[in-house]
């Protein structure tokens, strides 16, 4: 039947043949039985069982797998951090700001601004003690490791674990170079990983000697100095080629903490660190015990370069002017100034002493002092009581009312208009446009000479002189004498109601000290580059004669009397001198301006917020401060009379030049006293 069915299927379109499912089922069951029989069959007698692998193979397999994955992860991490590495070629090319070094008139360094890089020196040019000292204290296995020192890292890790904090570092010289050339000082895992990669790159690209050379020429050694040559100039005043063993060890000691071991800031700490470096050099074998002892003995003979402790206000004032004379470009500049370090030190001590001893009690919080030579060269400048507390320069930047210290300008205008020291005017109340000035003590003396009026600082007389010659003429005279501040031609101009700077007002008095030549205060004598090429040198002597010598003599005679019988008696000392006091309204400003034949000095005292002092006048604290400074400044100098006067303060008698002049002079005896008698 099955055959019949198959035949019918073959003949009928649209039907598929029917499989014999029963036969297929039997076939599959038989196949499974044969397979099961082979699997479960008992081994033949005498057949060996398969050996079981030891358990360590299992662990070895997993360890190998973990190692492979660790290498993959490390490789990926290296690749990740490598993609964020800085441009090494750019970092290796030294980029820097030009350095400006300011020196005093005697060559002593006052300050240096900008990063200082010395000349790049090879290992052969350096004394052997210098690289040896660095290797001994920083990386004694430098020539044997591959850029990273596993022993050093292990030692540092153990020491840090025992201390519970970071007390040692395991970085090699190569790692330090990588960090300082290419990376930031932040302490992160990523920065450490990049440092590791860069250290390996440096070791592959450069030889050990080249790495050490770059390190010595580029590492920071404090005080703005990068590299051993710059540091040698900064601390010892000479090239690194000339350093002794002790000095070399001191530079090497700076690498750990340049600020902490700076010999200028903390000499004791620097010496202790230097002794440690010398001991390490001995331990490594770079020094014998005898050489180490001799090197330590050099400490007593070591001389540090000038630290530039004085004159910070002056330095700031000078730096603002450098670009007016030269364009720095990328050159290091040396600015030779007019400052006298000896006078500057005396000025700073005098200001600090009076503020500390009397200023606070008198309500005077600040003081300023300027010392000029008669030609306008700034020899000393103190812009305040404490530079660290305030960098505002009250000697050059502040503009305050000078009070009666402005009166020499008024009287000079009067002299040029025909008045003389012997001219009499009336000291009496006066009112101009509703304004009524009064004298300091409220009293009036009646008829007085201009010389007496100047000595006693009589306000009404100064106003009368101004009104007589004209206010604009007083303003013009001020301009001629060097005052550039805005001055209004008001009646109060005569009493110093305008605001001026201390340095400009001091320059006005310098005109009287030099016989009448105009003065432009200056602090820069010369500017040169570090190779010694002169870029600017001051030449000339200012604007020339601005006041007639006869008027200078008359003014000096009047101002000398101020220290003899007038308001400036507290400023008098053992040589011919002249000056003028000044006090602004409500005791907000107190001045003393004066000069000898050798030095001009101006003093201001007050408060930055214009708070009134406790009855401080120019003849009080400022006069005493001026005297203290001038006494110290003239120590050892011979006495000289003021221009146009003799040692007694009287006008010099000049013999007529020709016969007829001598004959005519015989009929005018008054001229021998200097001025016609009114």
The CATH superfamily label of the largest domain reads DD-peptidase/beta-lactamase superfamily
What is the gyration radius calculated from CA atoms?
Answer: 44 Å
Outline = elongated
Proportion of residues in helical segments: 40-55%
How are the strands ordered across the major sheet?
Answer: 2-1-5-10-11
| % residues in beta strands | 5-15%
Distance between the termini: 173 Å
User: How many DSSP helices?
Assistant: 23
Largest sheet: 5 strands, mixed
Please give the CATH architecture of the largest domain. Answer: 3-Layer(aba) Sandwich
Low-confidence stretches: 1-19, 667-678
Structure description:
The protein has four domains: 89-93 and 126-300, Orthogonal Bundle (Penicillin binding protein transpeptidase fold); 100-116 and 310-400 and 499-541 and 568-647, Beta-lactamase; 403-494, DD-peptidase/beta-lactamase superfamily (Beta-lactamase), CATH 3.40.710.10; 652-678, no CATH class. The chain is 43% helix and 10% strand. It has 23 helices and 14 strands. The chain has helices at residues 2-11, 21-40, 55-83, 88-92, 129-138, 150-163, 173-182, 189-205, 208-218, 228-236, 245-254, 267-284, 289-297, 312-325, 341-359, 407-416, 450-455, 459-469, 471-481, 502-513, 549-565, 621-633, 659-666; strands spanning 100-103, 109-113, 116-117, 225-226, 333-337, 366-372, 378-382, 424-427, 446-449, 524-529, 534-537, 578-583, 589-595, 600-606. Strand 10 (524-529) and strand 11 form a beta hairpin. Helix 16 (407-416) crosses helix 18 (459-469) and helix 16 packs across helix 19 (471-481). The protein is elongated, with a radius of gyration of 44 Å.
């Amino acid at each position: 039947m099955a055959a019949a069915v198959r035949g019918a299927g073959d003949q009928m379109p649209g039907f598929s043949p029917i499989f014999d499912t029963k036969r297929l089922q039997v076939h599959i069951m038989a196949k499974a039985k044969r397979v099961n029989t082979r699997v479960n069959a008992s081994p033949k007698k005498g057949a060996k069982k398969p050996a079981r692998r030891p358990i360590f193979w299992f662990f070895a397999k997993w360890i190998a797998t973990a190692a492979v994955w660790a290498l993959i992860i490390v490789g990926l991490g290296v690749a990740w951090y490598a993609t964020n590495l800085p441009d090494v070629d750019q970092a290796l090319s030294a980029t820097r700001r030009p350095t400006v070094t300011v020196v005093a008139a005697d060559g002593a360094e006052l300050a240096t601004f900008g990063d200082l890089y010395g000349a790049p020196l090879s290992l052969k040019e350096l004394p052997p003690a210098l690289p040896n000292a660095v290797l001994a204290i920083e990386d004694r296995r430098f020539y044997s490791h591959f850029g990273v020192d596993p022993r050093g890292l292990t030692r540092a890790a153990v020491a840090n674990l025992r201390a519970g904090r970071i007390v040692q570092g395991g970085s090699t010289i190569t790692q330090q170079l990588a960090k300082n050339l290419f990376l930031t000082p932040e302490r992160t895992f990523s920065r450490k990983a990049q440092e590791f990669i860069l250290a390996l790159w440096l070791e592959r690209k450069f030889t050990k000697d080249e790495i050490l050379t770059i390190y010595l020429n580029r590492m920071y050694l404090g005080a703005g100095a990068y590299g051993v040559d710059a540091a040698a100039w900064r601390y010892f005043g000479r090239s690194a080629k000339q350093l002794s063993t002790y000095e070399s060890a001191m530079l090497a000691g700076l690498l750990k903490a340049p600020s902490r071991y700076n010999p200028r800031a903390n000499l004791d700490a620097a010496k202790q660190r230097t002794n440690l470096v010398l001991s390490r050099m001995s331990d490594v074998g770079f020094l014998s015990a005898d050489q180490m002892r001799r090197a330590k003995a050099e400490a007593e003979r070591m001389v540090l370069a000038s630290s530039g402790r004085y004159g910070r206000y002056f330095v700031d004032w000078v730096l603002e002017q450098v670009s007016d004379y030269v364009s720095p470009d990328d050159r290091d500049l040396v600015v030779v100034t007019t400052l006298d370090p000896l006078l500057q030190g005396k000025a700073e001590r005098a200001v600090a002493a009076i503020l500390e001893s009397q200023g606070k009690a008198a309500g005077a919080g600040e003081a300023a002092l300027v010392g000029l030579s008669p030609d306008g060269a700034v020899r000393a400048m103190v812009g305040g009581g404490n530079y660290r507390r305030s960098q505002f320069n009250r000697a050059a930047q502040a503009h305050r009312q000078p009070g009666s210290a402005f009166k020499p300008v008024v009287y000079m205008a009067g002299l040029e208009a025909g008045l003389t020291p012997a001219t009499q005017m009336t000291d009496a109340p006066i009112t101009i446009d509703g304004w009524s000035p009064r004298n300091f003590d409220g009293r009036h003396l009646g008829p007085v000479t201009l010389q007496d009026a100047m000595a006693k600082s009589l306000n009404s007389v100064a106003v009368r002189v101004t009104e007589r010659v004209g206010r604009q003429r007083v303003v013009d005279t001020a301009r001629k004498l060097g005052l550039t501040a805005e001055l209004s031609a008001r009646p109060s101009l005569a009493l110093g109601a305008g605001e001026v700077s201390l340095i400009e007002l001091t320059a006005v008095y310098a005109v009287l000290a030099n016989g009448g030549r105009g003065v432009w205060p200056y602090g820069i004598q010369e500017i040169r580059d570090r190779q010694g090429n002169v870029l600017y040198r001051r030449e000339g002597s200012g604007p020339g004669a601005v006041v007639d010598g006869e008027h200078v003599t008359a003014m000096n005679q009047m101002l000398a009397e101020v220290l003899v019988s007038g308001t400036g008696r507290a400023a008098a000392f053992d040589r011919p001198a002249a000056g003028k006091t000044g006090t602004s309204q409500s005791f907000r400003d107190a001045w003393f301006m004066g000069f000898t034949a050798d030095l001009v000095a101006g003093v201001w005292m007050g408060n930055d917020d214009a708070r009134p002092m406790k009855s401080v006048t120019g003849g009080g604290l400022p006069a005493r401060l001026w005297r203290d400074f001038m006494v110290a400044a003239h120590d050892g100098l011979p006495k000289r009379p003021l221009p146009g006067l003799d040692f007694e303060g009287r006008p010099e008698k000049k013999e007529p030049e020709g016969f007829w002049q001598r004959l005519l002079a015989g009929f005018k005896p008054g001229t021998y006293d200097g001025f016609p008698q009114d």
